[in-house]
Amino acid sequence: MDREWMRMRLKGFEQVASQYWSVRSVNGDTTQEHRWLFEDEPTIKRILRHLSPDRPGLEVLGHDDWQGLTIDLKEVSRGIGILADMDEWATRLAPEAPSLPADRLHAWVWGAARTFWESAHYRAAVHAAATSINAHLQSKLGRRDLSDTKLIQEAFSEKAPESGKPRLRIPGDPGDPGVQTRQRGALQLGQGAYSALRNPAAHEIGDLDEQEALEQLAVFSLIARLIDQCQVVT
Questions:
Q1: In this structure, what DSSP letter does residue 228 have?
Q2: Burial 85-106 (b: 16+ CB within 10 A, else e)
Q3: What is 121-178 written as a DSSP string?
Q4: Residue 196: how many CA atoms within 13 Å on its side-chain side?
Q5: How far apart are CA 162 and CA 159, in angstroms?
Q6: pLDDT digit string (tens) for 74-89?
């Protein structure tokens, strides 16, 4: 929608209308202005009906009882006002967006990230959260021989547990397709997070944007909740 073009056409129509009344008031020849007004009328009506679809019957030009030309500029002024405020409407009248309070993330995540976050070290905060989850997962499984992605792979593996290799299982009937899907999803989510988020946080330089870092902490918070809710099967 070309708002500037619409505004220009409405303003131009106002100017021609003003010129028409000026010429008419001194009994001048308004033939040219009359023609311009009627040439512009179809476009002006289309613009106004686009801006006010709830008012399809609005008219701009007409004739009085003596067949004199009438011009309703109230609708034109209204359209110009709508165009002037549309951008502000989009901002001011937008629904309230939900917020994500960092202190309501899983305790393993926010407890580890908080100190770094408060000092605006966002990449370090993400790394600390991932490291914290890794430590809690090692403790839950009793395994210190693996970490990060490999630990996630072993923990959520669909293979039966082996000696020294306990598994995590999503609560519910293991024969239920929904539970099986969540089990595979937990594995994929954990692998993806450690490969795509934790590794860059540990090895790349430069800090993260605050919003991006918060979104990454939210991902790790989901992983932490899954791990926390899972049962250990030996």
A1: H
A2: eeeeeeeeeeeeeeeeebeebb
A3: -HHHHHHHHHHHHHHHHHHHHT--S--HHHHHHHHS-SSPPBTTB-EEE-SS-TTSHH
A4: 13
A5: 9
A6: 999 999 999 999 888 8
Which amino acid belongs to residue 101?
P
Q: CA nearest 190: which of 173, 160, 170, 212?
A: 170
Q: Six-digit token pair at 82?
A: 């709508």
233 token code pair:
């099967």
Given a contact cutoff of 8 angstroms between Cβ atoms, the answer to whether 167 and 178 are in contact is: no
Residue with tokens 């519910």: 172
CA distance 64 to 62: 7
Least confident of 50-59, 69-78, 103-112: 50-59
Q: Which two tokens stand for residue 110?
A: 């926010």
Q: What is the 3-state secondary structure (H, E, C) of 60-98?
A: CEEECCCCCEEECHHHHHHHHHHHHHHHHHHHHCCCCCC
DSSP 26: T
pLDDT given for residue 6 in this prediction: 94
